[in-house]
Amino acid sequence: QVQLVESGGGLVQAGGSLRLSCAASGRSLSSYGMGWFRQAPGKEREFVAGITRIGVTTYYANSVKARFTISRDNAKNTVYLQLNSLKPEDTAVYYCAASSTLYYSAYYSQSRRYDYWGQGTQVTVSS
Question: Phi, psi (5° rounding) for residue 121?
């Protein structure tokens, strides 16, 4: 059992940046692959970024490549998502998720593979 709490969301102007954090408790994150997902009103939840257990490999949705960076610090039991060059279409609730069964790279982008989810943090980008 692991609890995840996101923070760092807010309101920014287009072109600005935010740094989201996902703090874990209950268990060490070293046993989990991690992912960030987002969901806008009226839309399905979509994959944003993923990272393997020790951070050797990262994965990104095409829509955020070259703009977002996922990282982790297992010593701090925290995962981060750096959002740069933000666009209005990035506006959504961003969720952190953890899984111990991400056996294949394709699994990272599939929300059903994740067992634990945070409460979400709102990111709003004004035009």
Answer: -135, 135
**Per-residue pLDDT of the chain in tens (127 residues, 90 and over written 9):** 899 999 999 999 999 999 999 999 999 999 999 999 999 999 999 999 999 999 999 999 999 999 999 999 999 999 999 999 999 999 999 999 999 999 999 999 999 999 999 999 999 999 9
Contacts of 35 (CB under 8 A, 6+ apart): 47, 48, 49, 50, 51, 96, 97, 98, 99, 108, 109, 114
Contacts with 42 (C-beta within 8 Å, 6 or more apart), sequence order: none
